[in-house]
Amino acid sequence: MGDLNTAPPYDALSYVWGTELNPDPILCNGVNMTVTKQLADALRHLRRYPGWGSVLPWPKDHPLCSGRNAWNGFARNRHEHHKDSIGEQEVLLWVDALCINQEDATERADQVKMMGKIYAQASNVKIWLGKEDKETPNFVTSKSTMGPPGTYDIYTALSAMQNAQFDAGRKNNFHIGNYGKVPIVLSFIAQALRNASGPKNRLATIRPVEDSAHRNIAYGFPPSHAPEWSVVREFFTNPWFERVWCVQEAVLASNATALIGEWEIDWTAIGRAAVWFRSKGYAVPAVLKYQLRDHQDLLPVSKPASAWDLCSRPDKKVPLLDLLHEFRNRLATNPVDKVYAAFGMAAELSRTEKDGFHELVEPNYTSKTVLDVYRDIAKFLIIEHGNLAVLSHAGASPQSEWPSWAPDWRHDKASNALSTTSSTSAYNTTGTQPLAIDISNKVNSISLQGIEVDTIIAYGDRLASYGFGFVTYQEEVDFVKMAWALFSQRPPDTFASNTYDDAAAAFIQTLTAGLSNNNRLVSEDPSFQADALHWFAQHTPRMLPGATLLQRLKWSVHESPDSGRFHEAFVRACVDRRFFVTRKGYIGIGPDTMNEGDVITILFGGRVPYLLQPVGASYKFLGECYVPGLMGGEAVQRWKDEGSKRNFFDLV
Fold first, then answer.
1. DSSP label at 36?
2. CA-CA distance, 563 to 531, in Å (whole number)?
3. Which of 64, 105, 128, 549 qualifies as a cystine partner to 15, CB 3.0-4.6 A?
């Protein structure tokens, strides 16, 4: 493509390449080109002649006509188009596999710099989700067009999802699944959108969100065992939702339309519905470290929902670190694209068209390895922002030669980051002390100024939690019991008194990293400690020997206690971490790779303490810690009072 500023109107294609090649080449500008089967299918669908001209229009009383259904306004079928529709007009189409010389690494790197603008300037981004499965789902019988006994009839139980008026006989003997799976999906999306735009559902609020049976009735959905949920789940597991490049292509589009077979669905509707499902407890987490024991009506909507969150940003510019975190659990054929696919949306790179790229982030597919790209992006973020926020995403890499301080974005981080955008104001271990970096002659090392605070003397087992849901598992109870045993036997501490209330508060604060389930400081959430103590009364009633019978009774009858609030905050903070005690009597939670003798440090420019492992004269970075008594700059103030001796830690 030439100068984008003078380009004629065009559409852009967003799709998953796939690995299967189309058996026949296509003719592009007079040249035979081999393409993947996915691209061939998309081009075949999008071609105007003879494709669109050969489509027979539906009669106006067809059961799936959008004007007669709940999806009217956001979805339509190509059979509803007539010869005078816009579908007959020729439109230029931009396709990455054809418009970029994929064999030329230099051209690919140059195009990466333009990719955001290409999709932002397109008249419409066509999202190809693949061919449509038109077969009637096996739970819809062909005899009576009804599901087998006991199964859910989407028209009978969810009449609000269908605006069409059927005579009594037809309505009672009609299942929309007779026309394939997409109409079922559209009905669920329509109901989610209706719920999202409607008034507050008071019926839904009278029961806890974990009561899925009540929740589904209140929101107009079938019961958890209804087979229609599997159809919706299958739709949201489409590979397109997993790919890193697809996020930018949808987010930057001024107008985007998803295509699945002969159906067109506004991307806006898919994104908004996914966000609503996530907000009401239907979402499977984006990362599952352990297999869910029960998922029934849970949906894999976390990734489309987070993509829509990015679409909803006013200027569609996002901090680069947030994008890298978002892309970590998405798929990329080339791992460096987990970085490059973020550039079109990164706030820090919004002026590159005018100022050019910093040498640390210049796209390079030839001379840079994956390690080089990931290490340099970490250095760029530290220098650009003057802080160590990127270290919160680092952890043990499977590769021994990998710099311990540089996040390996190819692999999930074992634990959730403590220092995030939502917790920025909660932690401030370095006070006003600025970042200080020393020059290192080792390309994979970084030398940071800081303070050595204490060393680990004992720690418990790693928390292996399912990390989701409202059920407390035995692994979680065992973790808390072991943590309490360590807490009770710790050396005399310097940050809390020996009263029961102070000890209980410190213990709860540590297990939740100081934040409630809604990211408020535990100390500023009046009901959270009572809710936490109610969880203890339910699951470990004999673990707090300092509590009087009257106190226990008070917790057990606490007005509207919600022990799930503590459970959610505790699991989020502690999953894949260990509880520890230090030589000076501090307690905390930290990375599961810890050993006795590892050093708790405050590195200037970081918002949380970090655990380092001595390796000769250098240190291996292990990860973040939460330590009550260190989170507000106390150690830095003592360091200043004692004379501010300079100390640099060489991280390798």
1. B
2. 5
3. 128
SS3 79: helix
With a CB cutoff of 8 Å and minimum separation 6, the contacts of 634 are none
Dump pLDDT digits (tens) for 499-553. 445 788 899 999 999 999 888 999 898 889 888 988 998 898 877 655 555 555 5
Rounded to 5 degrees, what angle do the CA atoms 318, 324, 327 make? 105
Amino acid at 29: N
Distance of CA 581 to the CA centre of its chain: 32
Tokens of 307: 């993509």
Whether the upstream peptide bond of residue 50 has omega within 30° of 0, thus cis, is: yes
SS3 sequence of 12-62: EEECCCCCCECCCCEEECCEEECCEHHHHHHHHHHCCCCCHHHCCCCCCCC
Structure tokens at 56: 């027979």
**Cα 571 from Cα 467, distance rounded (Å):** 6
- Band (287; pLDDT cuts 50, 70, 90): low
Task: Kindly report, residue by residue over 122-160, the tens digit of the pLDDT.
Answer: 999 999 999 988 788 888 854 433 333 333 444 443 433
Contact, 222 vs 229, CB < 8 A?
yes
Which of the 8 DSSP states describes residue 491? P
Q: Name the residue among 543, 622, 634, 544 with its Cα closest to residue 589.
A: 622
Q: What amino acid occupies position 246?
A: C
29 pLDDT tier (thresholds 50, 70, 90)? confident
Total residues found in the chain within this entry:
652
Question: How does the average pLDDT of the chain come out, rounded?
Answer: 86
Phi/psi at 134 (5° precision): -90, -5
* Domain limits, the chain: 4-48+90-130+238-316, 154-235, 413-651
Note if the pTM is more than 0.70.
Answer: yes
Per residue in 210-248, pLDDT (tens digit) is: 788 899 999 999 998 899 999 999 999 999 999 999 999
Q: What is the rounded distance in angstroms from the CA atom of residue 376 to the CA atom of residue 382?
A: 10
- CA dist., res. 269 & res. 76, Å (int): 12
Q: How far apart are CA 92 and CA 95, in angstroms?
A: 10
Pick from 580, 569, 193, 617: nearest CA to 440: 617
Instruction: Identify which of 616, 565, 569 has the alpha carbon closest to the alpha carbon of residue 589.
Output: 569
